[in-house]
Design brief:
Layout lengths: L2 E5 L4 H12 L3 E6 L2 H15 L3 E5 L5 H13 L5 E4 L17 H28 L4 E4 L1
Parallel strand pairs: 1-2, 1-4, 2-3, 4-5
Helix pairs in contact: 1-2, 3-4
Bound molecules: NADP nicotinamide-adenine-dinucleotide phosphate.
């Protein structure tokens, strides 16, 4: 079965994508920082679709966690699709740029841009080894 990694796979769009891919037979590696919510999602997807779902709690801004994610995909046989979906807004609820705390912007850039590229770099050897490896950045 093909293997997809979805960051931010515990809720929202990531969780919906996890269900949609599992329904088509994909095995999954999911990540999010909040372990309990992530484990609940993984259990539900596994139960509904019978595919293999590995939950790896952690923060995508952490290089060691990104390496763990790629290793988890390896344990499922490789990586065919990376969906880089985890993101933060920098302020919740979102505010106009004139009121956005710079620390929030820094966190958003680190999560949404720097970590996303870091994960692509980490995953590239696995994606290149796949027949048709692909990356989607949301
Ligand atoms: N909702 C919208 O209106 C909208 C519009 C346009 C684009 N988008 C994009 O669509 C994507 C998903 O949005 P959404 O609304 O579904 O978001 P969401 O419901 O807030 O979910 C975000 C997911 O990312 C995880 N996450 C956040 N920071 C993380 C980190 N540092 N490391 C690992 N996981 C992290 C969250 O779990 P934890 O908090 O437990 O880590 C959660 O699983 C985002 O890229 C967003 O920019 C959304």
């Amino acid at each position: 079965m093909p293997v997809a990694m979805i960051t931010g796979g515990s809720k929202g769009l990531g969780r919906a994508l996890a269900g949609a891919l599992a329904a088509q037979g994909w095995d999954l590696v999911l990540d999010a920082r909040t372990a309990g919510v992530l484990e609940d999602t993984a259990r539900e997807v596994r139960g509904r679709f019978g595919t293999r779902v590995v939950a790896v709690p952690g923060d995508v801004t952490d290089a060691a966690h990104r390496a763990d994610l790629v290793a988890a995909a390896g344990s499922l046989g490789g990586l065919d699709l990376l969906v880089s979906n985890a993101s933060v807004l920098g302020a919740e609820p979102l505010v106009r740029l004139d009121a956005l705390p710079l620390e929030g912007l820094r966190r958003a850039l680190e999560t949404n841009v720097v970590a996303a590229l870091g994960l692509v770099q980490e995953a590239l050897p696995s994606l290149r080894a796949a027949e048709a490896g692909a990356v989607v950045v949301i």
